[in-house]
Amino acid sequence: MASERVDLDGNLIKSITICMIGAGGFIGSHLCEKLMSETPHKVLAVDVYNDKIKHLLEPSASGELPWADRIQFHRLNIKNDSRLEGLIKMADLTINLAAICTPADYNTRPLDTIYSNFIDALPVVKYCSENSKRLIHFSTCEVYGKTIGCFLPKDSPLRQDPAYYVLSEDASPCIFGPIEKQRWSYACAKQLIERLIYAEGAENGLEFTIVRPFNWIGPRMDFIPGIDGPSEGVPRVLACFSNNLLRREPLKLVDGGQSQRTFIYIKDAIEAVLLMIENPARANGQIFNVGNPNNEVTVKQLAEMMTQVYSKVSGESSLETPTIDVSSKEFYGEGYDDSDKRIPDMTIINRQLGWNPKTSLWDLLESTLTYQHRTYAEAIKKAISKPVAS
Ligand code: NAD
Ligand code: UDP
């Protein structure tokens, strides 16, 4: 498997050790899986939780895991643990995924959001810079905020011109709402850590890559409220809509579901991250959009498609009223605001890594909702049938 692998320039890929912070989350779990099954690299997996990577850490009934000596879990909170610098020093590369990154938190827990996405990431950048270690840092497409086009009159033909909406790493401005719209606390914290990393590169020679994910979705994303997360918790849209479908409730469209998003299958996106890991000469100093510009829908269209796909994979009929509108204030509380449209410019990642996404929205929803149904349908049925304590 491993010995004959070459990078994009034909050089043999050497095995490295990766300190992956936030390895127990959605993206981290898929990245660990990929690294264990397809590469010879070692992973020091850092997180406060490990439920989503348990299958990679513990031998199954059928025997020892083939990668058992290549992955180690370190349960630590990077906010306050002196072991962090030692782990970064032991590794060739650090990948930082740790963050509070669910929109329901941005306006309701703005301090935690800013601390998590800026303050807690500072030591990681500092240790990488001081110890001359390479860093791949996960930012977000949300640093672009709103499109220029959304400020044009509703009937302006310029709204159809890509110059007014396509989001480019080296050209687009970052446009956030006012401070009282605390939704932007996350985007602003992510923007400042990007600027700090960029400055460390410019002034102190830090070797870095910044990733801006555009709505990566797939199995193991977030949680289903009341099953493997808090009953009152509000995850990202894929898990919210999955939860509604599993419980046979209407899907809630925030402010009518008119915002647009491009969704990419997690497995396509992980291919891009692996290329970054294994092609440092092409990835260092770069900021990469990673998304699928071909998979654009409004949130309302997403709800309709998920309803159809779920009906197909579960064999259940659709509800008579499959969606309902809710106001953002009711759903997220005071201070919510939204990104109107997110189309990634793919020029830089194409040029540097020759990468393109492959999976259509229908196909990625089919495999993801098959997983959701298989994983949660029984548990939901049990939870619903339990008599409520009087
Ligand atoms: P996730 O919440 O599933 O994973 C984050 C992980 O970080 C969690 O397992 C969490 O326990 C861990 N973590 C948080 N704070 C920590 C701390 N102080 N110490 C140790 N571990 C900590 O989220 P994800 O979707 O996997 O996102 C990973 C990164 O990608 C985040 O930085 C996020 O902002 C960014 N991102 C993701 C998307 C997406 O589409 N999934 C979009 C934009 C940005
Ligand atoms: N949304 C919705 N219903 C839900 C959850 C989310 O209409 O039950 C909307 C949300 O307002 C936003 C979009 O779906 O316009 C995507 O939300 P997500 O939480 O996935 O994160 P975002 O893309 O905004 O970062």
UniProtKB/TrEMBL annotation:
Gene3D superfamilies (UniProt xref): NAD(P)-binding Rossmann-like Domain
Name the record gives this protein: UDP-glucuronate decarboxylase
Family recorded in the similarity comment: Belongs to the NAD(P)-dependent epimerase/dehydratase family.
Organism whose genome encodes this protein: Fraxinus pennsylvanica
GO cellular component: cytoplasm
InterPro entries per record: Arna-like_SDR_e, Epimerase_deHydtase, Lipid_A_modif_metabolic_enz, NAD(P)-bd_dom_sf
Cofactor(s) demanded: NAD(+)
GO biological process, one term: UDP-D-apiose biosynthetic process
Enzyme Commission identifier(s): 4.1.1.35
Superkingdom, taxonomy of origin: Eukaryota
Cell wall biogenesis/degradation keyword on record: yes
Pfam families the UniProt entry points to: Epimerase
MF terms in GO: identical protein binding; protein heterodimerization activity; UDP-D-apiose synthase activity; UDP-glucuronate decarboxylase activity
